[in-house]
Amino acid sequence: MRLQDIDFPLQALLAAPLQGVFVISGLLDDAAKRRNLHQEISNAFYTLKRNQRWRYVVLLSDSIDVSLSLYPLLPVIRLSPPSKSEIADIVSNFLLESQRDLNNELQRQLVQAFSGMPYGEIDVVLRQMLSKVSEGALMPSFALGYKREKLKGRGITLPAGPDIDRVAGMDELDKTMDKIRLLFQPEAEARGRRPPKAVLLWGIPGTGKSLAAKLSAKRIGGAMVAADWNSLVGQSVQESMANINHLLDLVDSSGTCVLFFDEFEKAFHGWDSGVQGGVLGKMAGRLLSWMQDHTSDVVMIATINRLNLLPAEMIRRFEYVHFFGSIHAGALHEVFKVHLDKHFKYNFSFKEWQILLREYRGCTPAEVAKAVQHVADDLYFRDVQSGDFTPELPQLELAMLTAERRTFTPASSQREISDQIAEIQNMAEYAKPVCGPDQSDFAVIEQPLMGIPNSGGTQKTKRAV
């Protein structure tokens, strides 16, 4: 009997003289649209209980959102994705049956790509590989490509790791990330220690928060799953809850993992006002519960621009909070070196470095990176147009960077951004700076007037003192 085209499948089933096990998919997904669905399910339960026929009904759904009165009538069986060891067995059996050979590293990559997928879907993708992938070495990238396309529709991405090992000028944040990396090691469990459940990175745009978050997965040796909160919100409560449940199931089954939310405060705009039928509040509540209770090797890292837009109960869930303020001269020097080393040959004297750092004082790392990129582009265009192009890195002159600095106004001089910086400084006790005191030769040291502290005297660099 085909029930998928029937408006009321439970009533049709009760009226039919049939016996057996009947599986109905998607019925619970319509709970918000069908006001009497709970009553239909209750009536069907008691009718089947009184009836002498051997009949059982199984309801399938991505998300369960039913009234509490139905829970005694509907035993809920949650089907979790297979563990990594179970996926490894599936992959091994497939390779044996298909007579394909993969080394241990490629098998590990394939298992990682399948993490979070249900059994049936893994089998389907493996079968597709038989006809679409000729080389075993390409199997992990095929599976990962399939997974990326699937997750994209749910607002979830699997970003590639940065091509650098650290973010310049963030020594205190580096210490935190090293601590987290060690807490993911088996030795930590022997001491009863575990990684933090959440880390918050707070600061104005362009200070390197997102890059630092993406680098964290590489630092701890885990996968990274990035989620767009607005894309997780679906057309209904059921779809929205299914999306966030799928996200949390995915990261819980991915082994060592970083769950990343960028500009996280935007997710909570109107979350407690009943907007969209209360879906935002339910999603936030689900995430809060997971942050509190999950035991998987997952650390959530979120970036925000405004701390005051996060609800207090959310802020309390973050064990580590770092703020990104204006970087000091030593950190700015490190940022410049990271970018200059990639694009130029240069040999600045200490005096030239002083001039450069003074010119770019107050600029964010993103503004420095953009300025260096513009100068590199200008040199490339010059060499190509003059016919002097060579693949070697061009020689950089200080005047090129100082001239580029005069073409833009730093964001920190804008009223809105300067207000955000002041807010961060005023609330700094809630967070730890990403960089410690400037210990470099470029550190600016106050020279008090006539030996009187805070007298508004002159400033000199440490090396010049």
Task: Summarize the model shown.
The chain contains 18 helices and eleven strands.
Key words describing this protein structure:
single chain, 465 residues, alpha/beta, Rossmann fold, 7-stranded mixed β-sheet, 45% helix, elongated
- How many DSSP H or I helices? 18
Largest sheet: 7 strands, mixed
Percentage of residues assigned to helices: 40-55%
Based on the coordinates given, report the CATH architecture of the largest domain. 3-Layer(aba) Sandwich
Estimate what percentage of residues fall within beta strands: 5-15%
The tally of structural domains comes to: 4
What would CATH call the homologous superfamily of the largest domain? P-loop containing nucleotide triphosphate hydrolases
What's the gyration radius in Å?
29 Å
CATH class membership of the largest domain:
Alpha Beta
Number of DSSP-assigned strands: 11
Q: What's the overall geometry?
A: elongated
Low-confidence stretches: none
What CATH calls the topology of the largest domain is Rossmann fold
Order of helices and strands: HEHEHHHHEHHEHEHHEHEHEHHHHHEEE
Order of strands across the main sheet = 3-5-6-7-4-8-9
The assigned structural class equals alpha/beta
Q: How far is the N terminus from the C terminus?
A: 90 Å
- Overall pLDDT score: 82
